[in-house]
Specification:
The chain is globular and about 80 Å long. It contains 18 helices and 35 strands. The longest helix has 31 residues. The protein is an alpha+beta fold. The strands form nine sheets. Strands 13, 14, 15, 20, 23, 24, 31, 34 and 35 form a nine-stranded mixed beta sheet that branches. A six-stranded mixed beta sheet has the order 3-2-1-4-11-12, sandwiched between helices. A hairpin with a 4-residue loop joins β32 and β33. Among the domains are: 114 residues, Nucleotidyltransferase, domain 5 (2-Layer Sandwich); 125 residues, no CATH class; 117 residues, Dna Ligase, domain 1; 69 residues, no CATH class.
């Protein structure tokens, strides 16, 4: 029997989606911030126990483990990375190439002083021109002098970013070799050195430098954590590479992952799952929202494709790393409710109680009221059935936290305060959803809203009932949906090489000459791709390729990415590259060929990883069999508790329909369906929620 394991570590919970042939197990355990490798193993142990196996027995028959992590994201948000030292080309220390970028390019960028303080920047005398010719090589004595200065004032990693290193990285490599010769890696005092050209081959010295700095900032924690996680899993019997979810939408082994690849990898996995669900449900336009313990993450799916950004910004910092677009809001089950000191206004988030100490009801020392505490007070959540009864919640502590921090200062009852907490979070999420819909869809065009995450089903009827929402889809595995999304991901690598060919010059060459220019650039990265894919366990025949060209208008800065051809890597078929489309694209975009340059060539390779099936289910069973009884629930629209029917989500079958007010309980989430809404189970056991 073949097993698959997909795990997503969030700020509050670590989720697992595991399969054995047609059998599925979903796992949710508390994240262990003190040692994130522990919650991975906790998740695997829970899954093995559900299958009735010892961990080594399951791991030895496991085809693939895919993993998404928040370590890099948290390092940036908490700003607890190492002190960096930066070496630039002489004369750029004060502005870090901002003048070279130009006012229009840096408009909207935030200050990066927290990432690299001005006193941690040094320059060296060297030069490479835009064509890649080295004009002056670095001087060993000067390099060692500036490195010694940076180490003496606290640098723990040296980042080297020199002008035009995208065209020729020789001078950056020379600086690294000089540092390594003086500080050999086998010594405890060795200083890690990271090059901008290692993480970006794009022109634009400022953005390339930002990319290198942010990657270096999160590298130590991500590398230490992922290497240890892989060692722990191998030590328990797993024999294949641990595959890491990348923010570009694919997976790769730890050895081929840089820190920035892991940024927002959990939300990205969720959006890949959303794209799969859009295809399954025939949805042309979908807005996906994940409400977890710490945040609400949103993304757009159009015609089954997720939105991707080749020049994203993280915390206001521009990057040269391809990422799936994710919009995050500090609203989740663990978000802390408080009264603004200046205005007295009730606010929820972005601060989160996390897994430890967690909501007050967790009884782990937390005293701040959270959305989870409010859900408990309102009767939405059963204190004896949290995580399927594996964790008991303390209702008294939740009431105390809300009474002392919210209700008493406002002069209202605890239930009213809890209702206002929930209402405020729902309004915040609804406002952001409406803005995202307005930005991506026409005003009168309907779309589907996919809701997931542990807190999503509990609140979707309030934040999701927008006028243009055609239907709300809550997947069967909503509480662990990002882990499910990881199970739909393939192995993926992106390679690129810089070019400097004007479109007008290319138009004057015969087709064979143009193709020769492109082929020379592509041959090198094809060989790298073949080596990498063999290292991942895939032969050329199973690898798909796609070649694209990135064009930029030198007058407006406008960027276009064009696909030139695709095929199998064992029969490259580069003679199929459609080079004529470059000039055509310029005309369609209103750009003048004389001002447009081919900036770089990109090779995108994918190999299909093992994916579990998602079967279509048949109807059957009586709705009455799913009834669990009733409990008192506070409904805000009438301002009082009423006895409300509770159903067992696991016993609902295809075709079952329920009208609100009603509670539907699953082991890892609760669906709260108010009056006026209907809840229906579809052929894949997803819930379809909407107004009656």
């Amino acid at each position: 029997m073949a097993y698959t394991i997909d795990i997503d570590t969030g700020g509050t919970f670590t989720d697992g989606y595991m399969t054995r042939d047609a059998e599925t197990v979903c796992v949710k355990v508390l994240t262990t911030p003190h040692d994130l490798t522990q919650c991975i193993m906790d998740c695997i142990e829970e899954g093995a126990d559900a299958f009735g196996l010892a961990v080594p027995d399951m791991l030895k028959d496991t085809e693939v483990i895919r993993y998404s992590t928040t370590v890099g994201t948290n390092t940036i948000l908490q700003r607890n990375g190492p002190q960096l030292g930066l070496i630039l080309s002489e004369g750029s220390q004060e502005n870090i190439y901002r003048e070279e970028a130009g006012k229009s390019e840096t408009n909207g960028y935030c200050d990066i002083g927290w990432l690299i303080p001005p006193d941690m920047v040094r320059g060296i005398d060297e030069a490479t021109d835009s064509e890649g010719e080295v004009l002056r090589e670095p001087d060993r004595t000067e390099v060692l002098a500036v490195v010694e200065e940076l180490i003496d004032i606290g640098a723990r990693i040296i980042v080297v970013s020199l002008i035009n290193s995208y065209a020729n990285r020789r001078n950056e490599q020379a600086v690294r070799e000089i540092i390594r010769s003086e500080f050999p890696r086998q010594y405890l005092g060795a200083i890690p050195t990271m090059l901008a050209s290692d993480v970006s081959s794009k022109p634009g010295d400022y953005v390339r430098t930002c990319t290198a700095l942010l990657n270096a900032y999160i590298h130590p924690q991500v590398a230490r954590y992922l290497n240890r996680a892989e060692e722990d899993i191998r030590g328990r019997g797993y024999e294949r590479p641990l595959l890491i979810v990348h923010s570009s939408g694919g997976v790769s082994r730890v050895a081929k992952t840089i820190g920035l690849h892991t940024f927002n990898s959990g939300p990205v996995a969720g959006l890949v799952g959303a794209a799969f669900m859009a295809g399954l449900k025939g949805s042309e336009r979908m807005l996906a929202v994940d409400i977890g313990g710490t945040s609400a993450d949103m993304g757009i799916i159009l015609d089954g494709e997720v939105g991707k950004n080749d020049e994203p910004m993280v915390q206001g910092i521009p990057l040269h790393v391809s990422m799936i677009d994710v919009l995050s809001l500090g609203s989740g089950g663990g978000s802390i409710a408080y009264l603004d000191e200046a205005t007295g206004e009730l606010k929820v988030g972005p601060q989160s109680a996390g897994a430890f100490p967690g909501p007050a009801a967790f009884d782990l020392g937390g005293s701040d009221p959270t959305v989870t505490d409010a859900d408990l007070v309102l009767g939405f959540v059963d204190p004896d059935y949290f995580l399927g009864g594996r964790k008991k919640l303390n209702l008294s502590l939740a009431e105390t936290a809300i009474r002392e921090k919210i209700a008493a200062p406002l002069g209202i009852g605890v239930e009213e305060a809890a209702y206002r907490i929930v209402k405020r979070m729902n309004e915040d999420i609804r406002t952001q959803l409406a803005a995202s819909a307005a930005d991506n869809f026409a005003a009168d065009v309907s779309f589907d809203l996919l809701v997931y995450g542990g807190a999503g089903p509990t609140h979707c009827c309030w934040f999701g009932a927008l006028p243009t929402v055609e239907r709300m889809i809550v997947p069967l595995h909503a509480p662990v949906f990002s882990a499910f999304g990881a199970s739909r991901m393939d192995l993926m690598h992106l390679y690129s090489v810089p070019m400097r060919v004007s479109v007008s010059d290319a138009a004057n060459l015969v087709e064979e000459d143009v193709r020769s220019v492109f082929r020379v650039q592509i041959d090198g990265i094809v060989n790298r791709a073949l080596m990498d894919m063999r290292g991942e366990g895939f032969e050329a025949a199973s690898v798909r390729w796609e070649v694209s060209a990135q064009l930029r208008d030198s007058q407006t800065g406008k960027l276009i990415v064009l696909t030139l051809g695709s095929g199998c890597l064992d029969a490259c078929g580069f003679e199929q590259l459609d080079l004529q489309c470059i000039g055509l694209a310029c005309k369609e975009s209103g750009m003048e060929e004389e001002a447009v340059w081919v900036e770089r060539m990109m090779l995108h390779t994918t190999a299909e990883a093992y994916k579990p099936d998602v079967p279509c289910r048949e109807g059957g069973g009586y709705l009455e069999d799913a009834e669990k009884g009733s409990r008192r629930v506070f409904w805000g629209d009438i301002g009082q508790f009423i006895d409300t029917m509770v159903y067992d989500r696991n016993l609902l079958r295809c075709g079952h329909e329920i009208s609100g007010p009603v509670i539907v309980e699953a082991a890892d989430t609760t669906y709260v369906i108010p009056s006026g809404f209907a809840f229906t189970i579809d052929e894949y056991l997803n819930a379809i929620v909407g107004r009656e």
